[in-house]
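User: My collaborator and I are trying to settle a disagreement about how two of our proteins should look. Neither of us wants to argue from intuition anymore, so we agreed to look at predicted structures for both before our next call. Could you fold the first one, then the second, and keep them clearly separated?

Assistant: That sounds like a sensible way to settle it. I'll keep them separate. The first protein:
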Amino acid sequence: MNPIIIVAAVVFLFFLFSTIKIVQEKSAKIVQRLGSFNRILHPGINFCIPLLETISGTVNLKVQQLDIHIETKTKDDVFVKLQVSVHVQIMKSKVREAFYELDDPYSQISSYIFDTVRAEVPKLELDDVFSRKDDIATAVKAELAEHMQKYGYSIVQTLITDIDPDAMVKESMNRINAAKRNKEAIYEDAEGRKIAKIKDAEADKESKRLQGEGIAEQRLAIIKGFADSVEDFSNTLSEVSPIEIMQFVLLTQHYDTIRDIGEKNSAIIVPYSPGTLQNLQQQLMEGNLMADEINRLNKDRTKIPTDRTKSFAQTEKDILDINKHLE
Protein backbone atom coordinates (compact mmCIF):
# COMPACT_ATOMS: atom_id res chain seq x y z
CA MET A 1 0.00 0.00 0.00
CA ASN A 2 1.20 3.49 -0.81
CA PRO A 3 2.75 5.10 2.29
CA ILE A 4 1.33 8.46 1.32
CA ILE A 5 -2.17 7.09 1.47
CA ILE A 6 -1.51 5.63 4.92
CA VAL A 7 -0.18 8.94 6.26
CA ALA A 8 -3.10 10.79 4.74
CA ALA A 9 -5.55 8.37 6.35
CA VAL A 10 -3.92 8.76 9.77
CA VAL A 11 -3.99 12.55 9.49
CA PHE A 12 -7.62 12.46 8.39
CA LEU A 13 -8.63 10.26 11.34
CA PHE A 14 -6.72 12.51 13.75
CA PHE A 15 -8.51 15.59 12.51
CA LEU A 16 -11.83 13.74 12.51
CA PHE A 17 -11.56 12.66 16.15
CA SER A 18 -10.16 16.04 17.23
CA THR A 19 -13.29 17.72 15.95
CA ILE A 20 -15.55 15.64 18.21
CA LYS A 21 -16.06 17.12 21.71
CA ILE A 22 -18.23 15.37 24.32
CA VAL A 23 -19.52 17.50 27.20
CA GLN A 24 -20.71 15.86 30.45
CA GLU A 25 -23.99 16.64 32.17
CA LYS A 26 -24.03 19.71 34.48
CA SER A 27 -21.00 21.21 32.81
CA ALA A 28 -20.11 23.48 29.88
CA LYS A 29 -17.00 24.04 27.74
CA ILE A 30 -15.68 27.35 26.50
CA VAL A 31 -14.60 27.37 22.82
CA GLN A 32 -12.13 29.96 21.58
CA ARG A 33 -11.30 30.56 17.94
CA LEU A 34 -7.87 31.95 17.32
CA GLY A 35 -7.67 33.14 20.95
CA SER A 36 -11.06 34.86 21.29
CA PHE A 37 -14.33 33.60 22.74
CA ASN A 38 -16.47 31.85 20.14
CA ARG A 39 -19.20 29.82 21.78
CA ILE A 40 -20.22 27.55 24.65
CA LEU A 41 -20.53 23.80 24.28
CA HIS A 42 -23.42 22.23 26.23
CA PRO A 43 -23.82 18.60 27.42
CA GLY A 44 -23.74 16.03 24.62
CA ILE A 45 -21.66 15.59 21.43
CA ASN A 46 -20.25 18.73 19.79
CA PHE A 47 -17.87 19.48 16.90
CA CYS A 48 -14.99 21.93 16.65
CA ILE A 49 -12.75 23.03 13.78
CA PRO A 50 -9.32 21.51 14.29
CA LEU A 51 -6.42 23.93 14.71
CA LEU A 52 -8.75 26.97 14.56
CA GLU A 53 -10.93 26.24 17.60
CA THR A 54 -9.73 25.13 21.00
CA ILE A 55 -11.34 24.32 24.38
CA SER A 56 -10.10 26.96 26.81
CA GLY A 57 -11.82 25.59 29.88
CA THR A 58 -14.67 23.65 31.50
CA VAL A 59 -17.26 25.25 33.76
CA ASN A 60 -18.93 23.23 36.54
CA LEU A 61 -22.68 23.94 36.66
CA LYS A 62 -23.33 21.94 39.84
CA VAL A 63 -24.19 23.55 43.18
CA GLN A 64 -20.92 23.95 45.08
CA GLN A 65 -20.41 24.55 48.79
CA LEU A 66 -18.00 27.11 50.12
CA ASP A 67 -17.15 26.87 53.87
CA ILE A 68 -15.61 29.91 55.52
CA HIS A 69 -14.47 30.40 59.14
CA ILE A 70 -14.75 33.96 60.41
CA GLU A 71 -13.65 35.40 63.76
CA THR A 72 -15.29 38.62 64.85
CA LYS A 73 -16.47 40.49 67.96
CA THR A 74 -20.00 41.01 69.23
CA LYS A 75 -21.56 44.16 70.60
CA ASP A 76 -20.77 43.11 74.19
CA ASP A 77 -17.06 42.62 73.29
CA VAL A 78 -17.07 38.82 73.07
CA PHE A 79 -14.89 37.21 70.42
CA VAL A 80 -16.74 34.55 68.50
CA LYS A 81 -15.95 32.25 65.59
CA LEU A 82 -18.59 31.61 62.95
CA GLN A 83 -18.64 28.99 60.24
CA VAL A 84 -20.55 30.14 57.17
CA SER A 85 -21.56 27.72 54.43
CA VAL A 86 -22.53 29.23 51.07
CA HIS A 87 -24.06 27.18 48.24
CA VAL A 88 -23.04 28.69 44.90
CA GLN A 89 -24.07 27.75 41.36
CA ILE A 90 -22.99 29.19 37.99
CA MET A 91 -25.96 30.36 35.95
CA LYS A 92 -26.38 28.66 32.54
CA SER A 93 -27.19 31.97 30.92
CA LYS A 94 -24.00 33.59 32.20
CA VAL A 95 -21.35 30.91 31.79
CA ARG A 96 -19.16 33.32 29.77
CA GLU A 97 -19.22 36.00 32.52
CA ALA A 98 -18.47 33.42 35.23
CA PHE A 99 -15.47 32.13 33.24
CA TYR A 100 -13.96 35.42 32.09
CA GLU A 101 -14.93 38.14 34.59
CA LEU A 102 -13.47 36.80 37.84
CA ASP A 103 -9.92 35.56 38.17
CA ASP A 104 -10.43 33.78 41.55
CA PRO A 105 -14.20 33.74 42.10
CA TYR A 106 -14.30 31.81 45.39
CA SER A 107 -11.70 34.02 47.01
CA GLN A 108 -13.70 37.06 45.98
CA ILE A 109 -16.93 35.52 47.27
CA SER A 110 -15.17 34.88 50.59
CA SER A 111 -14.21 38.55 50.79
CA TYR A 112 -17.85 39.59 50.50
CA ILE A 113 -18.85 37.07 53.17
CA PHE A 114 -16.17 38.33 55.57
CA ASP A 115 -17.25 41.92 55.02
CA THR A 116 -20.95 41.21 55.56
CA VAL A 117 -20.54 39.04 58.67
CA ARG A 118 -18.17 41.51 60.31
CA ALA A 119 -20.66 44.26 59.62
CA GLU A 120 -23.69 42.40 61.05
CA VAL A 121 -22.34 40.57 64.12
CA PRO A 122 -20.93 43.67 65.94
CA LYS A 123 -24.50 45.03 65.99
CA LEU A 124 -25.66 42.13 68.15
CA GLU A 125 -24.87 40.84 71.63
CA LEU A 126 -23.72 37.25 72.04
CA ASP A 127 -27.13 35.83 72.96
CA ASP A 128 -28.68 37.62 69.99
CA VAL A 129 -26.07 36.12 67.65
CA PHE A 130 -27.35 32.66 68.57
CA SER A 131 -31.02 33.58 68.32
CA ARG A 132 -30.67 35.62 65.12
CA LYS A 133 -28.21 33.54 63.13
CA ASP A 134 -30.82 33.12 60.38
CA ASP A 135 -30.98 36.91 60.03
CA ILE A 136 -27.20 37.02 59.64
CA ALA A 137 -27.36 34.29 56.98
CA THR A 138 -30.08 36.20 55.13
CA ALA A 139 -28.01 39.37 55.17
CA VAL A 140 -24.98 37.49 53.77
CA LYS A 141 -27.09 35.94 51.02
CA ALA A 142 -28.60 39.28 50.03
CA GLU A 143 -25.18 40.96 49.91
CA LEU A 144 -23.64 38.17 47.82
CA ALA A 145 -26.59 37.98 45.43
CA GLU A 146 -26.40 41.69 44.77
CA HIS A 147 -22.70 41.63 43.84
CA MET A 148 -22.21 38.16 42.34
CA GLN A 149 -25.22 37.85 40.07
CA LYS A 150 -23.72 40.11 37.42
CA TYR A 151 -20.71 37.78 37.28
CA GLY A 152 -22.88 34.75 36.61
CA TYR A 153 -22.96 33.30 40.16
CA SER A 154 -26.25 32.44 41.85
CA ILE A 155 -26.32 32.21 45.66
CA VAL A 156 -28.60 29.24 46.35
CA GLN A 157 -28.41 29.16 50.15
CA THR A 158 -26.41 30.64 53.01
CA LEU A 159 -26.15 28.94 56.41
CA ILE A 160 -24.52 29.77 59.74
CA THR A 161 -23.50 26.24 60.69
CA ASP A 162 -21.50 26.93 63.85
CA ILE A 163 -21.07 29.66 66.45
CA ASP A 164 -18.13 29.15 68.77
CA PRO A 165 -17.51 31.76 71.51
CA ASP A 166 -14.28 32.09 73.44
CA ALA A 167 -13.52 29.16 75.78
CA MET A 168 -13.91 31.24 78.96
CA VAL A 169 -17.19 32.64 77.71
CA LYS A 170 -18.48 29.15 76.96
CA GLU A 171 -17.54 28.03 80.46
CA SER A 172 -19.41 30.98 81.95
CA MET A 173 -22.44 30.27 79.79
CA ASN A 174 -22.41 26.64 80.90
CA ARG A 175 -22.32 27.70 84.55
CA ILE A 176 -25.23 30.09 83.99
CA ASN A 177 -27.25 27.42 82.24
CA ALA A 178 -26.45 24.92 84.98
CA ALA A 179 -27.59 27.42 87.62
CA LYS A 180 -30.84 28.04 85.72
CA ARG A 181 -31.50 24.33 85.40
CA ASN A 182 -30.77 23.85 89.12
CA LYS A 183 -33.16 26.68 89.97
CA GLU A 184 -35.88 25.14 87.82
CA ALA A 185 -35.28 21.75 89.41
CA ILE A 186 -35.59 23.23 92.92
CA TYR A 187 -38.77 25.06 91.92
CA GLU A 188 -40.33 21.94 90.43
CA ASP A 189 -39.36 19.91 93.49
CA ALA A 190 -40.91 22.53 95.77
CA GLU A 191 -44.06 22.55 93.66
CA GLY A 192 -44.23 18.78 93.95
CA ARG A 193 -43.93 18.92 97.74
CA LYS A 194 -46.54 21.69 97.83
CA ILE A 195 -49.00 19.63 95.81
CA ALA A 196 -48.33 16.60 98.01
CA LYS A 197 -48.99 18.63 101.18
CA ILE A 198 -52.18 20.05 99.69
CA LYS A 199 -53.38 16.58 98.80
CA ASP A 200 -52.48 15.32 102.29
CA ALA A 201 -54.36 18.24 103.85
CA GLU A 202 -57.39 17.58 101.66
CA ALA A 203 -57.29 13.89 102.57
CA ASP A 204 -56.96 14.77 106.28
CA LYS A 205 -59.83 17.23 105.95
CA GLU A 206 -62.03 14.61 104.33
CA SER A 207 -61.01 12.04 106.93
CA LYS A 208 -61.87 14.41 109.78
CA ARG A 209 -65.17 15.29 108.12
CA LEU A 210 -66.13 11.64 107.87
CA GLN A 211 -64.85 11.02 111.40
CA GLY A 212 -66.94 13.94 112.66
CA GLU A 213 -70.02 12.61 110.91
CA GLY A 214 -69.39 9.24 112.52
CA ILE A 215 -68.99 10.80 115.96
CA ALA A 216 -72.13 12.88 115.44
CA GLU A 217 -74.13 9.79 114.46
CA GLN A 218 -72.69 7.93 117.44
CA ARG A 219 -73.71 10.73 119.81
CA LEU A 220 -77.18 10.86 118.27
CA ALA A 221 -77.50 7.14 118.89
CA ILE A 222 -76.30 7.59 122.49
CA ILE A 223 -78.77 10.43 123.07
CA LYS A 224 -81.58 8.38 121.57
CA GLY A 225 -80.65 5.41 123.76
CA PHE A 226 -80.42 7.70 126.78
CA ALA A 227 -83.86 9.14 126.03
CA ASP A 228 -85.31 5.65 125.61
CA SER A 229 -83.76 4.58 128.92
CA VAL A 230 -85.25 7.54 130.77
CA GLU A 231 -88.64 6.94 129.17
CA ASP A 232 -88.58 3.23 130.10
CA PHE A 233 -87.69 4.07 133.71
CA SER A 234 -90.48 6.65 133.88
CA ASN A 235 -93.03 4.19 132.56
CA THR A 236 -91.90 1.38 134.85
CA LEU A 237 -91.25 3.36 138.04
CA SER A 238 -93.76 6.16 138.13
CA GLU A 239 -92.90 7.11 141.71
CA VAL A 240 -89.30 7.92 140.78
CA SER A 241 -88.68 11.49 139.63
CA PRO A 242 -87.07 12.17 136.20
CA ILE A 243 -84.07 13.77 137.91
CA GLU A 244 -83.34 10.62 139.87
CA ILE A 245 -83.72 8.51 136.72
CA MET A 246 -81.28 10.75 134.86
CA GLN A 247 -78.78 10.54 137.71
CA PHE A 248 -79.03 6.76 137.70
CA VAL A 249 -78.48 6.53 133.94
CA LEU A 250 -75.51 8.88 134.10
CA LEU A 251 -73.90 6.85 136.87
CA THR A 252 -74.50 3.66 134.90
CA GLN A 253 -72.80 5.15 131.84
CA HIS A 254 -69.98 6.38 134.08
CA TYR A 255 -69.29 2.84 135.35
CA ASP A 256 -69.56 1.43 131.82
CA THR A 257 -66.93 3.90 130.69
CA ILE A 258 -64.61 2.95 133.58
CA ARG A 259 -65.05 -0.71 132.66
CA ASP A 260 -64.18 -0.08 128.99
CA ILE A 261 -61.10 1.90 129.94
CA GLY A 262 -59.94 -0.82 132.31
CA GLU A 263 -60.00 -3.41 129.53
CA LYS A 264 -57.13 -1.60 127.73
CA ASN A 265 -53.64 -2.58 128.89
CA SER A 266 -52.22 0.87 128.17
CA ALA A 267 -54.82 2.74 130.21
CA ILE A 268 -53.97 4.13 133.66
CA ILE A 269 -56.87 4.65 136.06
CA VAL A 270 -56.36 7.21 138.83
CA PRO A 271 -58.11 6.10 142.03
CA TYR A 272 -60.79 8.34 143.43
CA SER A 273 -62.97 8.28 146.54
CA PRO A 274 -66.68 7.47 146.51
CA GLY A 275 -67.28 11.01 147.64
CA THR A 276 -66.40 12.14 144.17
CA LEU A 277 -69.51 10.43 142.79
CA GLN A 278 -71.60 12.02 145.56
CA ASN A 279 -70.21 15.41 144.63
CA LEU A 280 -71.07 14.70 140.98
CA GLN A 281 -74.65 13.80 141.99
CA GLN A 282 -74.88 16.88 144.22
CA GLN A 283 -73.69 19.12 141.38
CA LEU A 284 -76.24 17.59 139.01
CA MET A 285 -79.03 18.12 141.53
CA GLU A 286 -77.99 21.71 142.22
CA GLY A 287 -77.83 22.39 138.51
CA ASN A 288 -81.30 20.99 137.98
CA LEU A 289 -82.73 22.97 140.90
CA MET A 290 -81.11 26.14 139.60
CA ALA A 291 -82.59 25.53 136.15
CA ASP A 292 -86.07 24.87 137.57
CA GLU A 293 -86.03 28.02 139.71
CA ILE A 294 -84.85 30.20 136.82
CA ASN A 295 -87.59 28.76 134.60
CA ARG A 296 -90.18 29.49 137.31
CA LEU A 297 -89.04 33.10 137.63
CA ASN A 298 -89.14 33.53 133.85
CA LYS A 299 -92.69 32.15 133.76
CA ASP A 300 -93.74 34.60 136.51
CA ARG A 301 -92.31 37.50 134.51
CA THR A 302 -94.19 36.27 131.42
CA LYS A 303 -97.51 36.09 133.24
CA ILE A 304 -97.27 39.70 134.52
CA PRO A 305 -95.44 41.64 131.78
CA THR A 306 -96.71 45.03 132.98
CA ASP A 307 -95.61 44.56 136.58
CA ARG A 308 -92.67 46.92 137.03
CA THR A 309 -92.58 46.76 140.83
CA LYS A 310 -90.11 43.94 140.79
CA SER A 311 -86.89 45.30 139.47
CA PHE A 312 -84.03 43.44 137.86
CA ALA A 313 -82.05 43.92 141.05
CA GLN A 314 -84.72 42.05 143.01
CA THR A 315 -84.63 39.22 140.46
CA GLU A 316 -80.90 38.96 140.83
CA LYS A 317 -81.31 38.95 144.60
CA ASP A 318 -83.72 36.03 144.32
CA ILE A 319 -81.21 34.11 142.25
CA LEU A 320 -78.48 34.79 144.83
CA ASP A 321 -80.81 33.57 147.59
CA ILE A 322 -81.37 30.37 145.65
CA ASN A 323 -77.63 29.87 145.33
CA LYS A 324 -77.17 30.39 149.08
CA HIS A 325 -79.96 27.93 149.75
CA LEU A 326 -78.30 25.34 147.54
CA GLU A 327 -74.99 25.89 149.27
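The second protein, kept apart from the first:
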Amino acid sequence: MGLFKYYPSNPKKLDHELEKRIFFHSMVFPVIFVFVIWLIEIIEQTTGFSFVKFGVYPLHLKGLPGILFSPFIHSDFNHLISNTIPFFILSFALVYFYRRISYRIFIQVYILAGLCVWLAGREAWHIGASGVVYALAAFHFVSGIIRNDVRLLTLSVVVVFLYGGMVWGMFPINSDVSWEGHLWGAVSGVVMAIYYRKYIIRRDKFDWEEEEEEEESEQSQSQFSDMDSGKSGNLDNTNHTGQY
Protein backbone atom coordinates (compact mmCIF):
# COMPACT_ATOMS: atom_id res chain seq x y z
CA MET A 1 0.00 0.00 0.00
CA GLY A 2 1.20 3.46 -0.87
CA LEU A 3 0.41 4.72 2.60
CA PHE A 4 3.39 2.97 4.11
CA LYS A 5 5.87 3.89 1.38
CA TYR A 6 6.35 7.52 0.56
CA TYR A 7 9.23 9.98 0.43
CA PRO A 8 8.93 13.04 2.68
CA SER A 9 10.60 16.25 1.55
CA ASN A 10 12.56 16.34 4.78
CA PRO A 11 13.80 12.90 5.92
CA LYS A 12 14.17 14.23 9.48
CA LYS A 13 10.39 14.60 9.65
CA LEU A 14 9.79 11.03 8.50
CA ASP A 15 8.63 9.57 11.80
CA HIS A 16 6.29 12.47 12.52
CA GLU A 17 4.75 12.46 9.04
CA LEU A 18 4.46 8.69 9.03
CA GLU A 19 2.67 8.59 12.37
CA LYS A 20 0.25 11.30 11.22
CA ARG A 21 -0.63 9.39 8.08
CA ILE A 22 -1.01 6.09 9.91
CA PHE A 23 -3.13 7.77 12.60
CA PHE A 24 -5.56 9.35 10.14
CA HIS A 25 -5.68 6.23 7.98
CA SER A 26 -6.52 4.17 11.06
CA MET A 27 -9.56 6.36 11.69
CA VAL A 28 -11.10 5.89 8.24
CA PHE A 29 -12.54 2.42 8.75
CA PRO A 30 -13.98 3.00 12.26
CA VAL A 31 -15.57 6.28 11.14
CA ILE A 32 -17.21 4.66 8.10
CA PHE A 33 -18.49 1.67 10.09
CA VAL A 34 -19.88 3.85 12.88
CA PHE A 35 -21.50 6.17 10.33
CA VAL A 36 -23.27 3.24 8.67
CA ILE A 37 -24.62 1.70 11.89
CA TRP A 38 -25.87 5.10 13.05
CA LEU A 39 -27.49 5.75 9.68
CA ILE A 40 -29.29 2.40 9.83
CA GLU A 41 -30.59 3.07 13.34
CA ILE A 42 -31.76 6.56 12.37
CA ILE A 43 -33.63 5.13 9.37
CA GLU A 44 -35.15 2.45 11.58
CA GLN A 45 -36.30 4.93 14.22
CA THR A 46 -37.64 7.53 11.79
CA THR A 47 -39.45 5.17 9.41
CA GLY A 48 -40.59 2.58 11.94
CA PHE A 49 -39.17 -0.18 9.78
CA SER A 50 -37.52 -2.98 11.75
CA PHE A 51 -34.26 -4.53 10.57
CA VAL A 52 -34.30 -7.16 13.32
CA LYS A 53 -35.02 -9.95 10.83
CA PHE A 54 -31.65 -9.24 9.24
CA GLY A 55 -30.02 -10.51 12.41
CA VAL A 56 -28.73 -13.98 13.21
CA TYR A 57 -31.33 -16.67 13.88
CA PRO A 58 -29.43 -19.82 14.90
CA LEU A 59 -29.75 -23.01 12.83
CA HIS A 60 -32.27 -21.50 10.42
CA LEU A 61 -31.54 -20.52 6.84
CA LYS A 62 -33.34 -17.23 7.38
CA GLY A 63 -30.74 -16.38 10.00
CA LEU A 64 -27.66 -17.00 7.84
CA PRO A 65 -27.55 -13.49 6.29
CA GLY A 66 -27.37 -12.16 9.83
CA ILE A 67 -23.78 -13.37 10.05
CA LEU A 68 -22.99 -10.41 7.79
CA PHE A 69 -25.72 -7.94 8.74
CA SER A 70 -26.41 -8.38 12.46
CA PRO A 71 -23.55 -6.12 13.71
CA PHE A 72 -25.14 -3.22 11.81
CA ILE A 73 -28.51 -3.60 13.55
CA HIS A 74 -29.39 -2.39 17.05
CA SER A 75 -32.52 -2.41 19.15
CA ASP A 76 -32.41 1.28 20.07
CA PHE A 77 -30.07 4.24 20.46
CA ASN A 78 -28.96 3.16 23.93
CA HIS A 79 -27.87 -0.19 22.52
CA LEU A 80 -26.10 1.60 19.67
CA ILE A 81 -24.33 4.12 21.90
CA SER A 82 -23.05 1.39 24.22
CA ASN A 83 -21.35 -0.29 21.24
CA THR A 84 -20.12 2.77 19.37
CA ILE A 85 -17.29 3.96 21.63
CA PRO A 86 -15.64 0.59 22.34
CA PHE A 87 -15.97 -0.44 18.69
CA PHE A 88 -14.36 2.78 17.50
CA ILE A 89 -11.43 2.49 19.92
CA LEU A 90 -10.77 -1.20 19.29
CA SER A 91 -11.12 -1.10 15.50
CA PHE A 92 -8.89 2.00 15.37
CA ALA A 93 -6.26 0.15 17.40
CA LEU A 94 -6.55 -2.89 15.13
CA VAL A 95 -5.77 -0.87 12.00
CA TYR A 96 -3.12 1.22 13.78
CA PHE A 97 -1.11 -1.68 15.21
CA TYR A 98 -1.69 -4.42 12.64
CA ARG A 99 -1.91 -2.29 9.49
CA ARG A 100 -1.47 -4.60 6.51
CA ILE A 101 -3.35 -7.56 8.03
CA SER A 102 -5.85 -5.55 10.11
CA TYR A 103 -8.75 -5.92 7.67
CA ARG A 104 -8.07 -9.62 7.28
CA ILE A 105 -8.19 -10.04 11.06
CA PHE A 106 -11.39 -8.01 11.29
CA ILE A 107 -13.18 -10.01 8.60
CA GLN A 108 -12.11 -13.29 10.18
CA VAL A 109 -13.27 -12.46 13.73
CA TYR A 110 -16.42 -10.88 12.28
CA ILE A 111 -17.41 -13.99 10.30
CA LEU A 112 -16.26 -16.50 12.91
CA ALA A 113 -18.19 -14.80 15.72
CA GLY A 114 -21.39 -14.63 13.67
CA LEU A 115 -21.06 -18.20 12.44
CA CYS A 116 -20.56 -19.53 15.97
CA VAL A 117 -23.68 -17.71 17.15
CA TRP A 118 -25.64 -19.20 14.25
CA LEU A 119 -24.39 -22.68 15.15
CA ALA A 120 -24.63 -22.51 18.94
CA GLY A 121 -26.99 -19.68 19.91
CA ARG A 122 -30.47 -20.02 21.33
CA GLU A 123 -33.47 -19.64 19.02
CA ALA A 124 -33.93 -15.89 18.92
CA TRP A 125 -32.87 -12.94 16.79
CA HIS A 126 -29.34 -11.87 17.68
CA ILE A 127 -28.37 -8.33 16.70
CA GLY A 128 -25.76 -5.72 17.57
CA ALA A 129 -22.04 -5.04 17.18
CA SER A 130 -21.21 -6.16 20.71
CA GLY A 131 -20.05 -9.56 19.48
CA VAL A 132 -17.46 -7.85 17.30
CA VAL A 133 -16.50 -5.61 20.22
CA TYR A 134 -15.87 -8.66 22.41
CA ALA A 135 -13.90 -10.27 19.60
CA LEU A 136 -11.64 -7.24 19.17
CA ALA A 137 -11.18 -6.76 22.91
CA ALA A 138 -10.21 -10.41 23.39
CA PHE A 139 -7.92 -10.27 20.37
CA HIS A 140 -6.03 -7.22 21.68
CA PHE A 141 -5.84 -8.59 25.22
CA VAL A 142 -4.51 -12.03 24.28
CA SER A 143 -2.19 -10.51 21.68
CA GLY A 144 -0.83 -8.22 24.35
CA ILE A 145 -0.11 -11.18 26.62
CA ILE A 146 1.49 -13.22 23.84
CA ARG A 147 3.66 -10.32 22.68
CA ASN A 148 4.15 -8.88 26.18
CA ASP A 149 2.91 -5.59 24.72
CA VAL A 150 1.79 -3.19 27.43
CA ARG A 151 0.00 -0.96 24.92
CA LEU A 152 -2.42 -3.68 23.83
CA LEU A 153 -3.01 -4.91 27.39
CA THR A 154 -3.69 -1.38 28.61
CA LEU A 155 -6.03 -0.74 25.69
CA SER A 156 -8.14 -3.80 26.48
CA VAL A 157 -8.30 -2.98 30.18
CA VAL A 158 -9.46 0.55 29.35
CA VAL A 159 -12.17 -0.81 27.05
CA VAL A 160 -13.34 -3.28 29.69
CA PHE A 161 -13.57 -0.34 32.11
CA LEU A 162 -15.50 1.80 29.61
CA TYR A 163 -17.74 -1.02 28.48
CA GLY A 164 -18.66 -1.99 32.03
CA GLY A 165 -19.43 -5.54 33.10
CA MET A 166 -17.85 -6.94 29.95
CA VAL A 167 -16.94 -10.26 31.54
CA TRP A 168 -20.43 -10.78 32.96
CA GLY A 169 -21.87 -10.18 29.51
CA MET A 170 -20.63 -13.63 28.47
CA PHE A 171 -22.93 -15.38 30.95
CA PRO A 172 -26.71 -15.99 30.62
CA ILE A 173 -27.72 -13.46 33.24
CA ASN A 174 -30.06 -11.25 31.20
CA SER A 175 -32.38 -13.00 28.75
CA ASP A 176 -32.64 -9.83 26.65
CA VAL A 177 -28.89 -9.81 26.01
CA SER A 178 -27.22 -12.05 23.45
CA TRP A 179 -24.64 -13.48 25.80
CA GLU A 180 -23.88 -16.08 23.11
CA GLY A 181 -22.78 -13.27 20.80
CA HIS A 182 -20.49 -11.91 23.50
CA LEU A 183 -19.09 -15.33 24.39
CA TRP A 184 -18.43 -16.47 20.82
CA GLY A 185 -17.09 -13.07 19.93
CA ALA A 186 -14.52 -13.35 22.72
CA VAL A 187 -13.67 -16.92 21.69
CA SER A 188 -13.18 -15.78 18.09
CA GLY A 189 -10.84 -13.03 19.23
CA VAL A 190 -8.76 -15.45 21.28
CA VAL A 191 -8.54 -17.90 18.37
CA MET A 192 -7.36 -15.21 15.96
CA ALA A 193 -4.87 -13.83 18.48
CA ILE A 194 -3.29 -17.27 18.77
CA TYR A 195 -3.39 -17.76 15.01
CA TYR A 196 -1.53 -14.48 14.41
CA ARG A 197 0.81 -14.88 17.37
CA LYS A 198 3.88 -14.87 15.11
CA TYR A 199 2.98 -11.60 13.43
CA ILE A 200 5.44 -8.92 14.54
CA ILE A 201 4.16 -5.42 15.22
CA ARG A 202 6.71 -3.07 13.74
CA ARG A 203 7.07 -0.13 11.42
CA ASP A 204 7.78 -1.02 7.81
CA LYS A 205 11.14 0.01 6.42
CA PHE A 206 11.27 2.36 3.47
CA ASP A 207 13.32 2.03 0.32
CA TRP A 208 15.54 4.95 1.21
CA GLU A 209 16.18 3.45 4.67
CA GLU A 210 17.24 0.16 3.13
CA GLU A 211 19.55 2.02 0.73
CA GLU A 212 21.18 3.84 3.66
CA GLU A 213 21.66 0.55 5.51
CA GLU A 214 23.27 -0.96 2.42
CA GLU A 215 25.63 2.03 2.11
CA GLU A 216 26.56 1.81 5.80
CA SER A 217 27.13 -1.93 5.43
CA GLU A 218 29.36 -1.38 2.41
CA GLN A 219 31.32 1.31 4.26
CA SER A 220 31.81 -0.90 7.30
CA GLN A 221 32.90 -3.79 5.10
CA SER A 222 35.44 -1.59 3.30
CA GLN A 223 36.78 -0.37 6.66
CA PHE A 224 37.15 -3.93 7.89
CA SER A 225 38.87 -4.94 4.68
CA ASP A 226 41.31 -2.02 5.06
CA MET A 227 42.00 -3.05 8.64
CA ASP A 228 42.50 -6.65 7.56
CA SER A 229 44.94 -5.63 4.83
CA GLY A 230 46.83 -3.47 7.33
CA LYS A 231 47.06 -6.38 9.74
CA SER A 232 48.27 -8.74 7.05
CA GLY A 233 50.93 -6.23 6.06
CA ASN A 234 52.15 -6.01 9.63
CA LEU A 235 52.25 -9.77 9.86
CA ASP A 236 54.37 -9.91 6.73
CA ASN A 237 56.78 -7.40 8.20
CA THR A 238 56.83 -9.30 11.44
CA ASN A 239 57.63 -12.52 9.69
CA HIS A 240 60.55 -10.88 7.92
CA THR A 241 62.07 -9.46 11.13
CA GLY A 242 61.43 -12.54 13.21
CA GLN A 243 59.51 -10.63 15.91
CA TYR A 244 56.43 -12.30 17.39
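Some points you might bring to the call about the second protein. Confidence is low (pLDDT under 50) at residues 1-11, 203-210, 231-244. The chain has two domains: 9-195, 207-244.
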